[in-house]
């Protein structure tokens, strides 16, 4: 019962972040098309690079939990097929634990770096948009990946959700 609540809660976070990713891609498409049209008319939009850069970063990082939850990453399975079942489960568990620790570390460092950018007042070059929040969103997204990896570690051989 507890795992069902955990799975539903984390799945809701994953799907919310996937929606944010989709909105980021949509924003990039719209702003690029509008900029092309406006350039043809002799009035390019200022700050398109700023917006597309932020939207691209957001799209990639918020898609990561979904890709992890559906096990959409590329895997090298050649070596796993040569191992006995116990070896595969052990190697998979060790790899998942290492990845979980790596993403914990990366999430923490993104929070720290975002705080540094906030204190420095770092902004984009053209539109002067503060960028600290992008790093904090990245930290949150990486923390959701940790939650997904924890579920995968407790349920070996299963994806958290179907694509």
Task: Give helix and strand order, one letter per element, not per position.
Answer: HHHHH
**Count of spatially separate domains:** 1
- Secondary structure: number of strands: 0
* Strand-pairing-aware structural class: mainly alpha
**Shape summary:** elongated
Membrane topology: Multi-pass membrane protein
InterPro entries: DctQ (IPR055348)
Transmembrane segments: 12-38, 44-68, 89-108, 128-151
Subcellular location: Cell membrane
Can you describe this structure?
- This protein is mostly helical.
- It has one domain.
- Helix content is 77%, strand content 0%.
- It has five helices and no strands.
- The radius of gyration is 19 Å and the shape is elongated.
- The two termini are 23 Å apart.
- 21% of the residues are buried.
- The model has no long low-confidence stretch (mean pLDDT 91).
Task: Describe, in short, the structure shown.
This protein has 163 residues and is an all-alpha fold. It contains 5 helices and no strands. It has helices at 2-40, 48-69, 78-82, 85-120, 132-154.
SSE blueprint and pairings:
Blueprint: H1 2-40, H2 48-69, H3 78-82, H4 85-120, H5 132-154
Label this structure with key terms.
163 residues; mainly alpha; 5 helices; 77% helix; elongated; transmembrane helix
């Amino acid at each position: 019962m507890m795992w069902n609540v955990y799975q539903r809660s984390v799945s809701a976070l994953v799907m919310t972040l996937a929606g944010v990713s989709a909105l980021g891609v949509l924003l990039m498409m719209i702003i690029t098309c509008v900029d092309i049209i406006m350039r043809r008319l002799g009035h390019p939009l200022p700050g398109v690079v700023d917006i597309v850069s932020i939207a691209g970063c957001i799209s990639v990082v918020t898609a990561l939990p979904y890709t992890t939850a559906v096990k959409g990453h590329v895997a090298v399975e050649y070596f796993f097929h040569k191992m006995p079942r116990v070896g595969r489960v052990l190697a998979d568990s060790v790899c998942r634990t290492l990845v979980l620790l790596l993403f914990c570390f990366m999430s923490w460092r993104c929070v720290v770096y975002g705080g540094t950018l906030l204190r420095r007042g770092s902004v984009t070059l053209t539109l002067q948009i503060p960028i600290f929040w992008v790093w904090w969103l990245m930290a949150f997204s990486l923390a959701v990946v940790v939650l997904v990896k924890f579920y995968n570690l407790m349920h070996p051989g299963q994806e958290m959700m179907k694509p």
